[in-house]
Write a structure and sequence with these properties.
With about 160 residues, this protein is mainly alpha-helical. The protein is about 80% helix and about 0% strand. The protein is built from 5 helices and no strands. The radius of gyration is 17 Å and the shape is elongated. The structure holds fe (ii) ion (FE2) (2 copies). The site of one fe (ii) ion has 6 residues, from helix 4 and helix 5.
């Protein structure tokens, strides 16, 4: 009989999921930056690209803490969110709605990350990985701030459209 899986296994699997997702996001952010129309949005994608590098390093530390190699596992959710974003880039090229679409897909990414990091932090605490919980919380805070900044950019973008109308 197969060994029964534990919360420790689930934690490890979910860590691999977000590790894959972060590396996918790292590759995607420069494309989002290139596509963005407003300078403020370009800058936001740039800033988050740098933050994402740090988040990947934090995840590598968490793998170290649990004594496992840093390895990802295909995350279908992030693949789906990213390919919807790519569709927006293609279909709304030169449209006054392009930045709104980019912001919406970036926020979908942030919300996915927020749910993952919230869960991982909780499980790290339960499993007694206090240092890992702190690392995961640091990233969770960054993702939440990024989401708030995107909301502010969405407001600006919408005002811009109202002015142009
Ligand atoms: Fe991230
Ligand atoms: Fe993020």
């Amino acid at each position: 009989m197969a060994k029964q899986k534990t919360l420790e296994d689930l934690f490890h699997d979910t860590l691999k999921d977000i590790y894959y997702a972060e590396r996918k996001i790292l590759k995607t952010l420069p494309k989002m930056k290139r596509a963005a129309q407003s300078d403020a949005l370009k800058q936001a994608f740039d800033k988050h690209h740098t933050e994402t590098e740090g988040q990947i390093e934090r995840l590598q530390k968490v793998f170290e803490i649990i004594g496992k190699p840093a390895r990802g596992k295909t995350c279908d959710a992030i693949e789906g969110i990213v390919s919807e974003g790519e569709e927006i880039i293609e279909e709304f090229k030169d449209s006054p709605a392009l930045d709104a679409g980019l912001i919406s897909s970036a926020q979908a990414v942030e919300h996915y990350e927020i749910t993952r990091y919230g869960t991982l932090k909780r499980w790290a605490e339960e499993l007694g990985y206090d240092d890992a919980a702190q690392l995961l919380d640091a990233t969770l805070q960054e993702e939440s701030t990024t989401d708030e900044n995107l909301t502010a950019l969405a407001d600006q973008d919408s005002k811009q459209r109202a002015k142009a109308a």
